[in-house]
Write a structure and sequence with these properties.
This is GRAM domain-containing protein. The chain has about 150 residues and is of the alpha+beta class. About 25% of the residues lie in helices and about 40% in strands.
Length: about 150
């Protein structure tokens, strides 16, 4: 007999995609507490000597970037809209105490910027004395190298 796939509802499809991304995030950033929920994720590239393709993951207390060839942890001091080629508005700059990190290749730069900026802004507004800045965590080959923050510990 014929087997016909039943289309999923939009809600079921969105949940499936969210579940896949959340599982992927958990595998990449194993040190993130289970209580941290994935809020959003964005495909992008970090511009260094070469363009490092990866994905940014946002949780309540952490902004994480995963690429196969880059790692580190930084304190974020500001997040800005930027341009590539001096006139194309499709990049985001994340400033740390030691460097400026330039992310580009967003499919929806404004949506990505607003998600990251709101996370950073909320953290700054709700910051407790035990934390100095929101952490930007970079992972390399599925190892989490960042310090994750939890406001509930304050």
């Amino acid at each position: 007999y014929n087997c016909i796939a039943v289309p999923q509802s939009p809600e079921a499809l969105l949940y499936t995609i969210y579940k896949q991304r959340s599982d992927e995030f958990r595998k990449l950033f194993k040190e993130v507490p289970e209580s941290e929920k994935l809020i959003a994720d964005y495909t992008c590239a970090l511009q260094k000597d070469i363009l490092l393709q990866g994905r940014i993951y946002l949780t309540e207390n952490c902004l994480c970037f995963y690429s196969h060839v880059f790692r580190g942890t930084k304190d974020i001091i500001s997040i800005l809209r930027e341009k590539t080629a001096k006139w194309i508005p499709n990049a985001i700059q994340i400033n740390t105490n030691s460097e400026k990190l330039f992310f580009s290749s967003f499919s929806a730069r404004e949506k990505s910027f607003l998600g990251m900026f709101r996370l950073w802004q909320n953290f700054v507004v709700l910051m407790c004395p035990c934390h100095t800045a929101l952490k930007l965590c970079f992972a390399f080959r599925c190892d989490c190298l960042g310090t994750f923050l939890n406001r509930r510990e304050c």
